[in-house]
Amino acid sequence: MIMTSKRSDYLSWDEYFMAVALLSAARSKDPNTQVGACVANKQNKIVGVGYNGFPLGCSDDELPWSRSGDLLDTKYPYVCHAELNAVLNSISRDLRECRIYVGLFPCNECTKVIIQAGIEEIIYLSDKYANTDSVKASKIMLDTSPRTSYRQLATSRKSLTVDFSVPE
User: Fold this and answer.
1) Of 15, 62, 83, 120, which one is the catalytic site residue?
2) I need a labelling partner for 156 at 20 to 30 A (CA). Which of 18, 60, 71, 143 fits?
């Protein structure tokens, strides 16, 4: 009998769900920042995904994508963040004991949604806005919340390739 061993280079659950979040980000039409989020439950099932974009039905050709100028001439009052969309798009209204995977550390508004939804862990990839008041407020809320923790994804994997060619 020939014994074969399993692959050793398969994705961990954390890597898998973060990859889904990053793939979801590719749906964003934002010309500057593409963020995706993936909510997974305790059984390692995906229960919600989202990416940053305008609300359903609002024209992404008519609303502004600018990052600077008068507030109403920028994207900021109009864009729904990936985390909010992942919670709103979830297949369950009960997200207690779930984890959310997101490319960027959540802003204070998304953190409020995450905590209110009962999500118990945030796993993020980048904290490039750590010095902003929005992220500082997020961490203050999370550090005082007994239910929701956060951690940066630890992986040695630098990239993952998705190949759309048909296997022969």
Assistant:
1) 83
2) 143
